[in-house]
Amino acid sequence: MTPRARALAAAIRTIREECGISGRELSKRLGMSHGTISHWETGRRVPTPEDVASLLTAAGVTGAEKRRIVDLAKHAGEPNWLTVGMPGIPQQLAGAVECERAASAIYQWAPMLIPGLLQTTDYARALMRAAGLPPNEIEARTMVRIARREVITRKRPLDLHVLLGENALRDRIGSSEVMVDQLRNIRELMQRDNVTVQLVRPGVGWHPGVLGPFVLYEFPDAPSAVHFEHFSSGAFVVDTDDVHEYGHAVDLIGRVAMSPEATSELIEEIACSTEAQW
C-alpha cells in the first residue's frame, strides 16, 4: 500500500466518524456492501475517485476538503509522493500517521529535533509555539502528535529505533523545565524493550546522516517506505533501491552512534546540567 493510499484510508475513516455515520449506514446510502466500506477504511482496497466523490457527497463533504480527498484518490496508486508548500502537509501528516500505525518497525535519524514519537506534550506545544502557529492550530496538532505515541505503548507495539543528534538534546525548546522533563521522558521510554535510542555526538566524521533527517518504515505486509519532512515540503519514497540505501544508512549511522547505555547516561548528564540552570 502506498503512503497516499494509507492517507486516503485515514481520510475516509475520519470523515465518516466526524459525520457520526456508521459504516453500515454509509454503505446503505451508497448502495454498497458494508465490507466494501470497511476495506476502504482499512486500506485493503483503494476506491476509485468516482466512488470517493460519491462517498463524500453522501457524508455531506463539499468544497476544498472534497477536492483534497478526491485528489488523494486520483493519485493513490503513485508510489513516491512529493508535496511543496503548506497545503500538502496535512495530507502527508495523515500518511505518516497511517504508516506509524501499520509499521512493525521504525528507524529514524533526527539530528536537530527530538522526534514526535518521543516528544512530551509540553515539548511539542513549545515547538509549535516557536514556529509561530496560531493557538487553535497548536492545540489541534499537539493532540494529534500525542495520540501518535500510542504505537509504542499499545498491546503489540512497533519497534522504534531512533538515532539522535546530540544537538537535539542541547538546543532548548521551551523552558528549562520543559527540556528536563523531555530528556527524562526519553530515558523512561528507553526502558521499554521496543524502544532504542542512540546518540550521535559531534565530531564523529562523515556519515550518511549529514545529508539530512529521514524516517524508514518497515511493514509486515507491504514494502518499506522512507519519509522526508522539511519546513514546508516533504516526500515519501518507496522505490526498492532507494529504500535499501536508507536501510544501509541506518547501519552506517549506528556504527558511529553511542550505545543505548552510554546514551542514557549522557541524557541524564545533560538533564542535570539543564536543571542546574533553573
Automatic annotation (TrEMBL):
* CDD domains reported for this sequence: HTH_XRE (cd00093)
Signal peptide boundaries: none
| Top-rank taxon, per record | Bacteria
What InterPro entries would the database entry show?
A: Cro/C1-type_HTH (IPR001387), DUF5753 (IPR043917), Lambda_DNA-bd_dom_sf (IPR010982)
* Gene3D superfamilies attached to this UniProt entry: lambda repressor-like DNA-binding domains
Residue ranges spanning the membrane: these are: none
One Gene Ontology molecular-function label: DNA binding
Q: Where is the HTH cro/C1-type domain?
A: 12-66
This protein's name: Helix-turn-helix domain-containing protein
Which organism does this record belong to? Saccharopolyspora flava
Q: What is the lineage of its organism?
A: Bacteria, Bacillati, Actinomycetota, Actinomycetes, Pseudonocardiales
